[in-house]
Amino acid sequence: MAKKKKLYSAISILLSMAMLTAACTSAPEEKTPSTPEKNQAPVTTSYPLEAGVTLTSWQPLNNNLLSVNIQNMADTSFGKELEKQTGVKVTYTHPPVGQTSEKFNLMVASNELPDVIEYTWTAYPGGPEKAIKDKVILPLNDIIDQYAPNLKRIMEANPEVARQLKTDSGQYYVFPMLRESVSQLVYQGPVVRKDWLDELGLPVPETIDEWYEMLKAFKEKKNAISPFTAKYAGGKWDIADVFIGAYRTSNGFYLDDEGKVRYGPYDPQFKEALTLLRKWYEEGLIDKDFSIPDADGKTLDNKITSGISGATVGLIGGGMGRWLDTMKDKDLNYEVVGVPYPVLNKGEKAFIGQRDFEYNPSNSAAIAASSKNVEIAARWLDYAFSEKGNMLFNYGIEGESYELDNGTPKFTDLIVNNEQFNVQQILSQYSKQNGPYLTDVNRNTNTYKQQDDAAKVWSNTEAEKHILPRFITPTVEESAQVAKILTDLNSYKEEMFVKFIMGKESLDNFEKYRQQLNTIGVEKVIAIYQSAYERYLER
Predict the structure, then answer these.
(1) pTM for the whole thing?
(2) 34-75 tens-digit pLDDT
(3) What CATH number matches the domain at 53-178+361-436, 3.40.190.10, 3.40.50.2000, 3.40.228.10, 3.40.50.300?
(4) Euclidean distance between the first and final Cα of the chain, in Å?
(5) Which PROSITE patterns match (predicted)?
(6) Cα of 145 vs its chain's centroid, Å
């Protein structure tokens, strides 16, 4: 297969720094990791490795595997093939769904760590720099130099990505989850019932006013009980920056046009967004039950497929794809499409929207400081960034899950026309859906044209300028301050957000609300994030 194309330049993603609170202690002194000596000649890697090598790995298990009753990565076709190709037998441990942070904290506190840990290391209290200082994980600079030629090649070819992967002091800490294509970086946005638009003779909405007219028509002419709905999960209403971005602010921390960190709910113009949502709620255009938790999204699924709602904020795969699948044999006219992030005036470009970085801190792998198998762990992780390993991680097993068509991998009918499983369920058994590898630019698991079109439509925003990187790292002292503030800040903000929209709190009290955010410490967090962002730019 041809060499990988150069990664696109760095783009931005919204930061919501959910700092962990468990204490982190040092690894036992008697364990001496097998880190390479400085100036040691790089190891020439050939696979499979020598017989009999083993590793332990802790990593979340993809929900698609659980949905088909597979409980361990070792039992998948992917896991078996990875062992065959690398020669490394891995014992996997998977935290229960919804308990990743809790189980991680307990594992770290116990000092009983596996060789490899797949986690969001930017969420570690004090960031990855502190995780290294606590002797939980190893700095990888020398390890990558000696044992990871494939990842090193990618980093040397892409300085911006290399910057994203290191701490402020210059220490690399993960084998990362990387994506190549913009279409893989944009996967969430506003969704509407296109068949309803066509039936009512309405245009695809672009402005707030057009959204208003559309939602009124859905209520009055399609009898939609909840014209607009969205999932409420994780303690917040999951509308991202839809509607809010029209007022040149955000629903969280972001960068303004001058590159300064702001907190959208603290902005004066946030009141305008709240005024809009309050009006729509009062007129019955927003789901009256929008604040009832819907962690698994089943309530949203029912409303958007049953005619209760005609518009939402959804994912390309876990939203649009599922809804189109559900309805393809039930209603031949049913169609949902991604529509632009709404703006105030026709022709404007959306201020912000969902957009990811090439490096996603989630599902990235570090090597435990206590590991006795550092070289094996590094070489095993680096296999994912090799040409052959990259094919396995992206596409699975040649001749089973994919074939090469003039050098381009194409999924077989086993994947795209499986009678027993949907695409994501079967593909998760043959490849790694999320994790430390480089997603191939040609990989596309979308089933419908509407999904491909949605990614293009949602990409047309200024999010690249305004989303704050998730991998900025406050210092240990700063992190302690942020951890104390953020829980109260997020809780109060969301409580008032719901009250303002529902009319339980008058918008006349918006300044009092801002004063309370300041009392809680919002300006201190803004200042800390600003310092961390500036340090990131200087890496």
Answers:
(1) 0.82
(2) 556 655 656 667 999 987 899 999 999 998 899 899 999 999
(3) 3.40.190.10
(4) 34
(5) PROKAR_LIPOPROTEIN
(6) 28
